[in-house]
Amino acid sequence: MSESTMNRTALILGATGAVGKQLLKDVLKNGTYTKVVSVGRRPVELEDNIPKDKLVQKTVDFENLEAHREDFKNVNDVFCCLGTTRADAGSAEKFIKIDQEYVLNSAKLIAEENKAPDAKLSPVHFLYCSSMGPNKNSLFLYPKTKGQTEEALEEAGFEKVSIFNPALLETVEPRTRPRMMESIAVSLFKPINGLLGLGQLISVETVGKAMHRVAKDTSLKPSNINGTKTSTIGSLVSRFSNSDLHSIGEDPK
């Protein structure tokens, strides 16, 4: 491992979600952070066998982040798993607010609160769970919003930004609000995916582990030679494909 997370603090946004909760559990069980801060609209409920001695839970109002600046200070690695669907949000406007505005407003505040006065960029490593097929020019709401969010994060003011693009997610725990179309898609596609070895279905547990491992080990890079670039402000941006997530996040059999 090329970089230790000892004496470092991790902050997780969206830890009540499917990916975020698995990420939080892996960080608490297998991480070496001194402190793990979970920031969300409500606390995360964890099983008794998950160690919680390093966990600090902060409940915030994303409509008034200015009142919570203290909760975002002194962090090193920020894992962002905030996200929703139009159906869950209730409208396109609410979807954009939760899926994009909450993410970007949080990132802006984190960059501001974790940067030396004379520094150009914040030393924070910002790791964002997006989706497959983001496209800021798409005619469809979901990929367009994800594409715009990714582009904005590249210029948000961090030294390092890692973006993860998982394909169809397979949950390991029931969602707090069931997603019928997701369940149907997984049940129909899973046997085809397995039979043909398509690799287009991925467990949220695998995604969470991959994000954690990328934060811990600086030697882990995207397999695509074009998966790493420098943004216009000098941020090192790495984009991990669904295939990368499988190879990094899956445990040896």
TrEMBL record:
GO CC terms of this entry: mitochondrial outer membrane
Membrane topology: Peripheral membrane protein
Residue ranges annotated for the NAD(P)-binding domain, each copy included: 14-181
Pfam families in the cross-refs: NAD_binding_10 (PF13460)
InterPro entries associated with the record: NAD(P)-bd_dom, NAD(P)-bd_dom_sf
SUPFAM superfamilies on file: NAD(P)-binding Rossmann-fold domains (SSF51735)
Lineage top rank: taxon: Eukaryota
Record localization: Mitochondrion outer membrane
PANTHER family with a match to the protein in the record: OXIDOREDUCTASE HTATIP2
Recorded family membership: Belongs to the FMP52 family.
Protein name: NAD(P)-binding domain-containing protein
Taxon lineage: Eukaryota, Fungi, Fungi incertae sedis, Mucoromycota, Mucoromycotina
